[in-house]
Amino acid sequence: MVNVVGHELRTPVTTVRGLAESLVDVEDDETRRTLTDALVRSAVRLERLVDDLLLASGVFTASPVGDVVAVDLADAVRRAGWPAPVEGTGVAAARVEAVDRLLEPIIDNARRHGDPVEVRIATYGDRVVLDVESAGPELAEGDVVLLCEPFFRGEAAVMTAPGLGLGLAVARTIARAEGGDVHVHARAGGGLVVRLELPCSA
């Protein structure tokens, strides 16, 4: 775990240092702006990695803040980078930043590790439910159970992309802080279904 965390943190830390050192000798404004923008992006990535580590460890000071409002989940899915149509509608009572933060790894995980992807939203009583369904290989039951655990990465994820294995764990942590939850189960015929539940807005 320490090896993986150190490797993931080293890249943005090294980038931040290199950009900062380059800024010292820059004289023209255009190059300074370019380097400054890159420095900010790297710092934001580093901050997100640290926040994810804290949340996965149960440190809620890194949780998103803001007021609980009515959040249209279809709009939130689009903000998370999902370009295709979303089936159904639903409005959750939650913090906008929290919903955006937890949907990002859910959508990203589905787009990277499964194709095609379907997103469905429905309301059941006092809960609004969002299902992200992705095709893919059949997953071992033991792997499915562990997908929301911090630092666990399935074989396909390990072989195809770098990462800490925190995405779904962080999504579940934030969802529970909002009074909801994230569940994962195998999809019939292969692939995965990630279900987000949140309190329904009155």
Notes on the structure:
It is a single chain. The chain is of the alpha+beta class and 202 residues long. The chain contains 7 helices and 6 strands. It has helices at 2-24, 29-56, 73-79, 96-113, 141-146, 155-160, 167-177, and strands at residues 69-72, 91-94, 117-124, 127-134, 181-186, 192-199. Strands 3-4-6-5 form a 4-stranded antiparallel β-sheet. The chain has a two-stranded antiparallel sheet with strand order 1-2. A hairpin with a 5-residue loop joins strand 5 (181-186) and strand 6. The longest helix is centred in the N-terminal third of the chain and has 28 residues, at 29-56. It is globular and about 60 Å long. The model has no long low-confidence stretch (mean pLDDT 82).
Q: Evaluate the radius of gyration.
A: 19 Å
Largest sheet, in brief, is: 4 strands, antiparallel
> What fraction of the residues are assigned to beta strands by DSSP?
15-25%
Order of helices and strands: HHEHEHEEHHHEE
Helix share of residues? 40-55%
- Runs with pLDDT <50, length 5+? none
Mean pLDDT: 82
Terminal Cα separation, in Å? Answer: 43 Å
Tally of alpha and pi helices: 7
Task: Output the structural class.
Answer: alpha+beta
Task: Report the principal-axis shape.
Answer: globular
